[in-house]
Amino acid sequence: GKSHLIRCLKQRMREAGRKMIVTASTGIAAFDIGGSTLHSRGGFGIGDKKFDQLLRSAQRSKGKAQAWCQADALLIDECSMVTTAYMNKLDRVLRRLRKRANEAMGGIQVIFIGDFLQNPAITKPEDVTTFDDAEARTPLFESKLWKKGLAVQCVLLRENFRQRGDEAFAALLD
Predict the structure, then answer these.
(1) How far are the Cα atoms of 24, 77, 142, 169, 170 from residue 28, in angstroms, in the given order?
(2) Mean local confidence (pLDDT), 114-137
(3) Is residue 50 pLDDT above 60, yes or no?
(4) pTM
(5) Which residues contact 71 (CB under 8 A, 6 or more apart)?
C-alpha cells in the first residue's frame, strides 16, 4: 500500500526530472523507504535552537543546503510524528535558503504521507520557549502553515494491503 505508493512517487519524480527529498519522522520509517530522517536532512538537527542558529547550521551544511535549493519536492512519511514547531522552523529556514520568502516551504512541494491520528507528535515545553512558537503544541493539520501556507490536497488510501487475507484482523484495525 503506502510503501508501494512511495516507491511509485520516487520513480515518477525521477522520470519527470524532478528532484525529491525523501524523509520520514523516524529512522526505521526512513530506512524502509530509502530516505533519511527529516531532522537529519533538515540540516539543523531537532531544531532546538533559535532561528538564527538554525539557519546558520543549515547554511553550513553545504551538501544539504544545496540539495534544498535544488529540490522540487519533499516527501515526509509518518508525518503525524512531526511537530508543528519543527515544520514552522523548516518553513522559515527554507524560505531563507531558497530566497523565496513569500512561498511556504520556500516553494518546495510537500508530500505528507501518514495518518495524523495514528501516532501524534511529542511536544515539550521547550518547543515554545526555544522558538517563540505559539503553535508549538498544535497538531500540524490544524496549524496556520497547513491551513493557509500550503495548498493541501488530501488523498485517502482506502484499500488495506498489509492485512489482506486476514479479514478479522483488518476489521479490528478499522
Answers:
(1) 8, 11, 26, 24, 23
(2) 68
(3) yes
(4) 0.86
(5) 19, 20, 21, 108
Q: Residue range 117-133: average pLDDT? A: 63
| In the block, residue with C-alpha cell 495548498 | 151
- Judge contact between 84 and 36, C-beta under 8 A: no
Q: 69: which residues sit within 8 A by CB, 6+ positions away?
A: 97, 98
Cell 539557519 -> residue: 55
Long-range contacts of residues 90-96, Cβ cutoff 8 Å, at least 24 apart: 90/38, 90/42, 90/47, 91/145, 91/149, 92/51, 92/55, 93/42, 93/43, 93/44, 93/51, 93/54, 93/55, 93/58, 94/68, 96/55
